[in-house]
From TrEMBL:
Keywords for the protein's UniProt record, in alphabetical order: Hydrolase
Taxonomic classification: Bacteria, Bacillati, Actinomycetota, Actinomycetes, Streptosporangiales
UniProt keyword annotation of Kinase present: no
Protein name per UniProt: Class A beta-lactamase-related serine hydrolase
GO molecular function, one term: hydrolase activity
SUPFAM superfamilies: beta-lactamase/transpeptidase-like
Amino acid sequence: MTRLDEVAERLRVRLPGLAEENGVPGVAVAVGIGGDLAEEAAGVLSTATGVEATVDSVFQIGSVTKVLTATLAMQLVVEGSIELDAPVDAYLPGFRAGFPEVTVRQLMSHTAGFEGDVFTDTGKGDDCLAPYVDLLAEMPQIFRPGAMFSYNNAGYSVLGRIIEVVRGRPFDACMRDHLFTPLGMTHAANDPYEAILHRAAVGHLGGRPSPVWAMARSNAPAGSMLAMTARDLVAFARAHLADESLRVMREPQVTLPDIGWGTAWGLGWELYDLPGGLVFGHDGNTIGQSAILRVDPAREVVVVVLTNGGNPKPLREEISGWVLEQPEKPVPDPAARPDARRVAGTYVSSTSRTTVSEDAEGRLWLDQVPLGIAAELGDEPFRTELVGWRGDALLPVAPGRGPVAFLGDDGRGRALYLHTGRADVRSGAPSDVRADARADARADVPADARAAVCAPGRNGG
């Protein structure tokens, strides 16, 4: 096992150069082994001001926030105030009246089935979550609740609303009173007004400081605003290692499709079933900032890397590779022969329109155009060839893109969903087939992608 003093020295020597090599303006890292901690920072918080990044700097953690939100919900489960398998409308009367079967567990495990990329701004006040949840009644249902995994930001805002209704206090107050304060997270900021009291990182897009610091507060439980130091995020992770009542959150709830993510999802945690044992964690991305949290419970190792722009992936992989086992990277299989007839077509969500087509030489191509909030935040259209990997899971040739999986059947032998973490629906699928799929999507996804959902005891984030 790597000694912490060796990690600290590597960080001191290697981090500045690693950030520069990858165009990362600023970075903060914390590595905990047992009860000890090594932390280091490099670069600047903003290229416009030149303010130095330090270990006391706060960075946005993006969707890592979802694990904190799930933890607040689990505390209420332990207290007996909510039940994982109770319908959401038991706590939010009238919630999505057409889909009364959606449960708290399904919100936590990204299996609720409704359109999840909803970023409508419903104001900056403490009352912003209530109208946000109300507008979700207009969102389409992509599949039957509990049928499969599809990453759902909106579901976590609903979970945040449940927490504040049951506690009788605004969500941000619940976060501070039930996590930040008891865990000694002294540099955690719920919003820009709190973040400005610290050395706050600014996200960078295209090498320049972003003109916007955070997304809408209505998405705060999903990760639109929360910022903290790497050290505070380690403190949060260590609470999960110490508190037996939270262990259930890392029990598998749903097996993931072959998309290059983890093996399964738990109650908030992404789970990696590696040869050396379980590693769990979560990633986060917001406007020009990114975060990773990884935990090896058997060795009591926690790794946090926070960045504010550039190409952070190689940096994160090198640092976490010093102390953690890494998942194998997908490699194309020359023997795999993708079924062009099954996968070709156009797939749509609220954030993208993706077309898969076959050229005259029999090669498959993916063309994606960002829509809605994705386009507003600067995502660019891209095109890449797709090559064989595992069955209906294909690999983009373009660097930096993960596998895509084609799931289900539209009644004509073609895939109904293009899955990249979120399930996009085939455009033009017959209405009766789509209705059947939404009524019973269990018949439309591989058994290994739904088995754990059908069994008790699971959630996501």
